[in-house]
């Protein structure tokens, strides 16, 4: 494969790709949890939560491609297996079916964890003068922080 010369050193591209791999793993885990909750939510707020979770997992699904393609643009393979995601993600897998309020709380925590993972990349991204990744991170932070706020509001 031809060498990559986009104005970011290979070392910095590797560090950014590694950070984005963690973000991809958190994002995939969040997607999977949200979709699971969409399928399994019950109770008096079933319809509104079912619909809300669908909008959230759909947005999350679309973000996966953007993150993975940025990793590829930097010249590295994107992780794509459950094993890799389990190793890279900061979000714990949900193996039971919690009640609706617990689902919302779990999703608040997962949205916030994903935001922290994105935010932790800014130092290296800024040092590397990597505006496309900074833009991606800013967009993801906006989504995760707003979604966490909306979910938190359900628990008030």
Automatic annotation (TrEMBL):
Keywords: DNA-binding
Keyword Cell wall biogenesis/degradation tagged: no
One of the record's GO molecular function terms: ferric iron binding
Ferritin/DPS domain: residues covered: 18-155
Family statement drawn from the similarity comment of this UniProt entry: Belongs to the Dps family.
Presence of the UniProt keyword Secreted in the record: no
Lineage top rank: taxon: Bacteria
Organism: Thorsellia anophelis DSM 18579
Organism lineage: Bacteria, Pseudomonadati, Pseudomonadota, Gammaproteobacteria, Enterobacterales
InterPro entries: DPS_DNA-bd, DPS_DNA-bd_CS, Ferritin-like, Ferritin-like_SF, Ferritin_DPS_dom
UniProt protein name: Starvation-inducible DNA-binding protein
């Amino acid at each position: 494969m031809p060498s990559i010369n986009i104005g970011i050193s290979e070392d910095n591209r590797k560090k950014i790709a590694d950070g984005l791999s963690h973000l991809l793993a958190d994002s995939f885990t969040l997607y999977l949890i949200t979709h699971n909750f969409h399928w399994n939510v019950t109770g008096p707020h079933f319809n509104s939560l079912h619909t809300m979770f669908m909008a959230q997992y759909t947005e999350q699904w679309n973000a996966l491609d953007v993150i993975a393609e940025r990793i590829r643009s930097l010249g590295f393979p994107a992780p794509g297996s459950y094993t890799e995601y389990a190793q890279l993600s900061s979000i714990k897998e949900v193996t039971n079916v919690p009640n609706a309020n617990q689902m919302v709380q779990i999703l608040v925590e997962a949205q916030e964890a994903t935001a922290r993972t994105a935010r932790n990349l800014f130092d290296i991204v800024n040092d590397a003068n990597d505006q496309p990744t900074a833009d991606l991170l800013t967009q993801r932070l906006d989504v995760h922080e707003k979604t966490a706020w909306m979910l938190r509001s359900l628990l008030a």
